[in-house]
Amino acid sequence: MIEEPEAEYRSGIGTDIHRIEAGRKLMLGGIYVPYPAGLAGHSDGDVALHAVIDALLGASGMGDIGTLFPDTDLRWKDADSKELVFIVKEKLQEKKWQVVNVDLTIHAEEPKLDPFKGQMKRCIAGLLDIDFTAVNVKAKTNDGLGDIGAGQAMAATAIALLRKKPKRTL
């Protein structure tokens, strides 16, 4: 009988925060959320996807979003964060990592995000090619505290679990 070697698992945490800015579209979790302002940033400012990217990069030991997509590089100016997730997914696949699950919390006083959480889950699951049930999206307010509570910023925190199946040996 051939004994299967154990799979390797790693987890990573990602965080991001951006100022709210008039005149920008609000992109969160890869979807457009109707709101009179969006998030400042070199790319589209999607704090949710940026936190997911950092969680994935952290779990795989491949650095962070600022190293991979520096704000000094014009290629990433106004970039769609879904494209950045796709690039990270390809890098994970090259290293034989599979995404097991992602848990995401978005911190925002407004808008209320409950109606959009399912769309965000579908988008993230599709981008990472994982089951819808392997993605969780939560939304929290800061109860009026700090920049987030004052409606001046939004933030996100994500954790991701990766699995690498070892090569079979005979």
According to DSSP, the number of beta strands is: 7
N-to-C CA distance: 10 Å
Instruction: Work out the strand percent.
Output: 25-35%
Mind telling me the CATH superfamily name? 2-C-methyl-D-erythritol 2,4-cyclodiphosphate synthase
Radius of gyration, in angstroms, nearest whole number: 17 Å
Helix content: 25-40%
Name of the CATH architecture:
2-Layer Sandwich
Helix and strand composition category? alpha+beta
Short précis:
By secondary structure, the chain is α+β, with helices and mostly antiparallel strands. Helix content is 28%, strand content 30%. The chain is built from 5 helices and 7 strands; from the N terminus they run ββββαααβαβαβ.
Observed structural traits:
170 residues, 60s Ribosomal Protein L30, Chain: A, globular, alpha+beta
Explain what this protein looks like in three dimensions:
- This protein has helices at residues 47-60, 65-68, 81-94, 117-128, 146-149; strands at 8-22, 27-28, 31-32, 37-39, 97-107, 135-140, 153-164.
- It has 170 residues and is of the alpha+beta class.
- Strands 4-1-7-5-6 form a five-stranded mixed beta sheet. Strands 2-3 form a two-stranded antiparallel sheet.
- The termini are close together.
